[in-house]
Design the sequence.
């Protein structure tokens, strides 16, 4: 069976499973549409939460950015530390308290806690901005995956993915999405770990990729450490040492913190904790989610580093057992005639990989043409520049099985896993947008007397429009998947996380402070991002080049969420201190949220 047919069968089977689950678990009420009837067990909710959160950025893009980061792989550990650490904050500081509050959405909590419809509307605006920014990355991931494995254009892949999400998210709501995400988690974790195990065995002889990362390099007998071999190869080609730390420490700390508090403030993740039966189940759900997430995140560094070595040794075959430049680079003849290298031309057709024989010698020299040492070598050998002109971060995980010459069924499984990761998160984000519009905006502000049937219809219509908007934005994303998602985390860090923290742990912060804080955090962070990436992400509208020379104090747009959060907290406390304290009943509400159910006063003993 050829690879294309195999891809169709595996991907088609998973899609049939998702749509079947959505039909079986179709939401019949607003409670089921928004919160799955609050009857999801903690283990299942943890698995659904993991799928909801481990998006295309985690599955497709994260290992790619670890593999190909110009500054080296070590710096990109911020993604791992930030995204995983954020779940600890979520489990300890937010999940149980929000579940005890007992509402469906984040804006509903903000509106009630800050006794203001205006605060609720501002929270809706923040939620929509965050979710739309985040969903761009997911649609990008869907397009990339379809483009390669169904051999269609990225845009066509995007349309197909949007149709699938529409089919199960609009009708199933949170109930259908939850059970679909459980299935999607199983698909994506198997799809991610099986190729990693194969590749780890090939390169290091270790069954577990986590141990392989720290093991020896098998093709030369294991005497040289795998990471030492990787450092040797990439530095020989003029790139930064893979394990080095070369970027701004301040920016790295701010970026990690932005991802952490952004994770804890992501609305589509938070609403998952409204779906469990009890307050204690919310904390257990977060714990289980962390376990399920760790199964992928502890493998990602190995996947990224092994992919980098594989791509390097593919284009410099002599690097497998010796020095790369002691032998010839990969020839055009091999690329065009060797069946094991057919993936190169296949990925070239997607536009995510490109090469050009600039000097006409029949070989494709891959090296850092900006490195002074390599420029001298190039001049001596008659090279006219790096000829592997494009390697997209978003192709590395998807191409990894082909690069490593793994069986066809593994390649098909990775395709299904990449789509599962992107679709599961896209569905969660679209539900968050839909519930914000129908429940918080229409029912909460515009038409409080709307019937349940009318609200359910409004939720489905608003989700349909959200899918159309996400698809349109996904056609022209402002960056690769992980980069776009990092921007969404920054916006969540600057807006939602501070207002939730102050709403739970401060009785003094009032509605004026909350509204002012959210607006300052949102506007400051959004403007900073738009300056470098274009106004509202429209191509060609950026006012400054996105380079460290232009960043304020060396803080990148993706790291600015931490600054936005500081501005939010500071503004809220200053404004609250200058205005009237919240009413007594609101202060009592805050107190009741923080006290476990049934707790009494302390007694002597």
Sequence:
């Amino acid at each position: 069976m050829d690879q294309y047919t195999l891809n169709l069968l595996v991907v088609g089977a998973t899609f049939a499973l998702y749509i079947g689950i959505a039909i079986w678990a179709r939401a019949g009420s607003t409670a089921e549409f928004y919160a799955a009837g609050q009857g999801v067990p903690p283990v299942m909710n943890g698995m659904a939460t993991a799928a909801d959160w481990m998006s295309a950025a985690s599955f497709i893009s994260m290992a790619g950015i670890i593999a190909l980061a110009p500054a080296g792989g070590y710096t990109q550990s911020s993604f791992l530390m930030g995204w995983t650490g954020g779940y600890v904050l979520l489990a300890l500081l937010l999940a149980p308290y929000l579940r005890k509050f007992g509402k469906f959405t984040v804006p509903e909590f903000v509106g009630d806690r800050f006794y203001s419809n205006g605060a609720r509307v501002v929270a809706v605006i923040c939620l929509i901005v965050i979710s739309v920014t985040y969903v761009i990355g997911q649609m990008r991931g869907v397009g990339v995956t379809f483009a390669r494995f169904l051999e269609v254009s990225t845009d066509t892949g995007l349309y197909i993915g949007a149709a699938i999400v529409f089919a199960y998210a609009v009708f199933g709501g949170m109930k259908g999405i939850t059970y679909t995400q459980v299935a999607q988690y199983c698909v994506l974790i198997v799809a991610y770990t099986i190729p990693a195990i194969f590749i780890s065995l090939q390169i290091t002889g270790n069954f577990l990729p986590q141990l392989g990362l720290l093991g020896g390099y098998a093709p030369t007998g294991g005497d040289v450490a795998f990471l030492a071999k990787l450092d040797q190869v990439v530095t020989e080609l003029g790139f930064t040492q893979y394990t080095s730390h070369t970027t701004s420490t301040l920016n790295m700390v701010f970026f990690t913190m932005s991802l952490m508090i952004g994770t804890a403030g992501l609305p589509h993740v938070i609403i998952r904790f409204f779906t469990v039966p009890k307050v204690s189940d919310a904390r257990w759900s977060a714990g289980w989610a962390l376990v399920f997430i760790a199964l992928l995140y502890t493998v990602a560094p190995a996947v990224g580093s092994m992919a980098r070595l594989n791509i390097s040794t593919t284009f410099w075959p002599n690097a497998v057992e010796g020095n790369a430049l002691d032998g010839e680079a990969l020839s055009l003849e091999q690329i065009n005639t060797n069946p094991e290298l057919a993936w190169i031309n296949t990925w070239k057709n997607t536009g995510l990989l490109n090469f050009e024989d600039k000097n006409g010698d029949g070989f494709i020299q891959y090296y850092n043409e900006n490195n002074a040492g390599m420029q001298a070598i190039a001049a001596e050998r008659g090279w006219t520049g790096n000829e592997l002109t494009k390697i997209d971060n978003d192709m590395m995980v998807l191409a990894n099985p082909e690069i490593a010459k793994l069986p066809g069924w593994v390649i098909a499984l990775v395709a299904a896993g990449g789509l599962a990761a992107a679709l599961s998160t896209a569905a969660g984000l679209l539900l968050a947008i839909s519930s914000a519009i129908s429940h918080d905006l229409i029912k909460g502000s515009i038409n409080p007397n709307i019937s349940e049937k009318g609200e359910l219809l409004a939720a489905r219509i608003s989700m349909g429009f959200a899918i159309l908007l996400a698809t349109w934005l996904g056609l022209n994303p402002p960056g690769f998947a992980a980069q776009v998602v990092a921007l969404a985390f920054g916006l969540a860090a600057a807006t939602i996380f501070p207002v939730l923290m102050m709403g739970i742990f401060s009785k003094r912060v009032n509605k004026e402070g909350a509204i002012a804080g959210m607006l300052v955090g949102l506007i400051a962070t959004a403007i900073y991002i738009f300056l470098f990436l274009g106004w509202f992400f429209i191509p060609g509208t950026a006012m400054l080049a996105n380079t460290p020379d232009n960043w304020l104090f060396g803080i990148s747009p993706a790291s600015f969420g931490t600054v936005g959060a500081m501005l939010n907290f500071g503004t809220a406390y200053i404004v609250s201190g200058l205005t009237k304290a919240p009413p007594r009943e609101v202060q009592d509400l805050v107190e009741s949220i923080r006290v476990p159910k049934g707790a009494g006063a302390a007694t002597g003993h």
In short: The two ends are 75 Å apart (CA to CA).
